[in-house]
Amino acid sequence: MTVDDPAPRARRRLGVGAVTVVVIAALAVTVAIGILRTTTAPVETITITETDATLAASPPAPAVYVHVSGAVMAPGLYRLDEGARVVDAVSAAGGFTDTADQAAVNLARIVTDGEQLHVPAIGEAPPPAPLSSTGGSATVPGGKVNLNSADLAALDTLPRIGPAMAQRIIDWRDQNGRFTSVDDLLAVPGIGDKMLAALRELVTV
């Protein structure tokens, strides 16, 4: 009977164990390399510069500059958003003083760029109407508003005439030519006999 030599079996077990150790070591090295590459890989960063932030912001709203004078707390030049009204200009100037003739100011009127808004004191004579956009006088001796040369701001000073009605008067004038008489106002949409009667002594052609 032949007895197997234990030495070859031991050598075979040793060989299998060595291969297993080598494989495990190789896997460990591979994982370590992968981790090292991940931690050392460059990371892309995005920096928002001031210019980028400025471009992303909404553009500023159009502005108008109004010189507020007279009976207000802080007379001066003020920058307002386009479409602002007299009430906004007075508020920017700190509001009325105790001596302001508030009834003499149309708070609902839309201000125009470059205008001077004067708030009279009680008892002070009202300032003359502003010049028209064509450079002609908006008023004539006697303080009447000239329908053919007055701009929107001048027409807006008339009683019961707001910005919308003033624009209708200007539109009618642009489409039909000069007013030949005060009665031509009846052709402007929205003006009836009662409004004409209220305006007759205040306007001229």
Main attributes of the structure:
single chain, 205 residues, alpha/beta, Ubiquitin-like (UB roll), DNA polymerase, domain 1, 2 domains, three-stranded mixed β-sheet, elongated
Summarize the structure in words:
It is a single chain. By secondary structure, this protein is of the alpha/beta class. The protein has two domains: 49-127, Roll (Ubiquitin-like (UB roll)), CATH 3.10.20; 128-205, Photosystem II 12 kDa extrinsic protein (DNA polymerase, domain 1, Orthogonal Bundle). 36% of the residues lie in helices and 12% in strands. The protein has six helices and six strands; from the N terminus they run H-H-E-E-H-E-E-E-H-H-H-E. The strands form two sheets. Strands 2-1-3 form a three-stranded mixed beta sheet, with helices on one face. Strands 4-5-6 form a three-stranded mixed beta sheet, with no helix packed on it. A hairpin with a 3-residue loop joins strand 4 (139-140) and strand 5. The chain is elongated and about 115 Å long. The N and C termini lie far apart (145 Å). Residues 129-137 have low confidence and may be disordered.
